[in-house]
């Protein structure tokens, strides 16, 4: 996969040189190219922002440098990239979206600063590229670079060959399937006792069927406790008898079990 990132702070992306993503780049699984937006300005101050029309606080990123930068990166490609613009007003970035992006051969990120990018940029490229405005949460950051880091890591780890154990993806919280809305349960490793805390005996039993059931039970209980809105979305028809028992245990008295 090719990933291009246009930013006024390309140095922000040094974390992409380490850990799984860094190894994926070394292996050639992920081709990340960074671009300085100011390279497409034409004044002595390399200006990328100006005051908003209609008044109001803050500054807005100018359309001219963004247009020139995107045109230069896309070039005459016969299969253009998918343009991703992080913004709190975009559709939520979820595991489902990460899986969708992981199927793309080329992503182009345009992280904004200040009050955002002049809206005409998205209107201009919507006719030529697939433009996605996405948000990683209901909060505002100083700029979109942190959001790009989140998205690239979430997508990059899904690419074939990036994770040493491909099963890790299938076991992720929010992984596709009948239990896609479940959080992962607690995890443990050696030693079996640490500071008086013991690993649950079932995990040491060697009974793989019982271990799988225990993990599923714990995932259900953790989801009910920490993300009740996810538990409420579970389709009871897709759950087994034990799943439904756990849901019923957590339901308040008099609640409709359907």
UniProtKB/TrEMBL annotation:
General function of this protein: Specifically methylates guanosine-37 in various tRNAs.
Gene Ontology biological process terms, A to Z: tRNA N1-guanine methylation
Primary location class: cytoplasm
Family: Belongs to the RNA methyltransferase TrmD family.
List of residues binding S-adenosyl-L-methionine: 136-141
Entry keyword set: Cytoplasm, Methyltransferase, S-adenosyl-L-methionine, Transferase, tRNA processing
Protein name per UniProt: tRNA (guanine-N(1)-)-methyltransferase
Protein's cellular compartments: Cytoplasm
Catalytic reactions on record: guanosine(37) in tRNA + S-adenosyl-L-methionine = N(1)-methylguanosine(37) in tRNA + S-adenosyl-L-homocysteine + H(+)
UniProt GO cellular component terms: cytosol
Top enzyme category: transferase
Organism of derivation: Sphaerisporangium melleum
EC number: 2.1.1.228
A Pfam family of this chain: tRNA_m1G_MT
InterPro entries assigned to the protein according to its UniProt record, in alphabetical order: Alpha/beta_knot_MTases, tRNA_m1G_MeTrfase_C_sf, tRNA_m1G_MeTrfase_TrmD, tRNA_m1G_MTases_N, tRNA_MeTrfase_TRMD/TRM10
Sequence ranges assigned to domain tRNA methyltransferase TRMD/TRM10-type in this UniProt record: 1-231
Domain of life, source organism: Bacteria
A GO term for molecular function: tRNA (guanine(37)-N1)-methyltransferase activity
Subunit annotation: Homodimer.
Keyword Amino-acid biosynthesis attached: no
